[in-house]
Amino acid sequence: MTVKVSHITHIDNLISILTQGCLWSDHKRIELGLVNQNIGYSHIKQRRLVRPVNVATGGTIGQYVPFNFCPRSVMLFVIHKGHDDYQGGQERVLHLISDIDTIRLTNDNCFFTDIHADLDYAEQIDDFTRINELDLERIINERYWSDFKEEKQAEFLAFESVAWHTIRQIGVKTQAVAEEVSVLLQAVQHKPEVIVRPKWYC
């Protein structure tokens, strides 16, 4: 079974991603001094920069590129509501879609968690024969998640970088944003399919 994963980012970050040829972890992006339009909680990002990883190649969570196992993530709902670190809404947020097999072909140091990776009691797992332990259909892809918020936030994490050519699709909310993305993609050889998926948003 091919397990799809989704990384959300602001469209303003796409040029940098295309120029770099990859998605960098927060740790590496800071090290390189790259400008980034943050859409997440800054305090959680800071915590992830020091929270240890005990599997894969070790390090900290902030040294890994995070993906959710579903579009329309809990964080996207938070972005919709607005928070202290970002008030820009969902309109210009992109879903960068790949799958764990494709990413692992170019990155040997990956793992996944059973719940939000930042939680103290999250299990870190680099044995991918256990991926079926995640309930993708009934919990993670469920539209209404108040009863299993933590489980819906299970993560797939890849050490340091994820190559741009592993991204298969770019999901957007509107046709207008799709057209903006398509223009930006003209500058690069690898052009993922751009798909308009308003149901992936609140």
TrEMBL record:
NAD(+) binds at residues 7-9, 48. Residues 3-202 form the DarT domain. This is DUF4433 domain-containing protein. The active site is at 48 (proton acceptor), 155. Keywords: DNA-binding, Glycosyltransferase, Nucleotidyltransferase, Toxin-antitoxin system, Transferase. Pfam families: DarT. Belongs to the DarT ADP-ribosyltransferase family. It catalyses: a thymidine in DNA + NAD(+) = an N-(ADP-alpha-D-ribosyl)-thymidine in DNA + nicotinamide + H(+). One of its GO terms (molecular function) is nucleotidyltransferase activity.
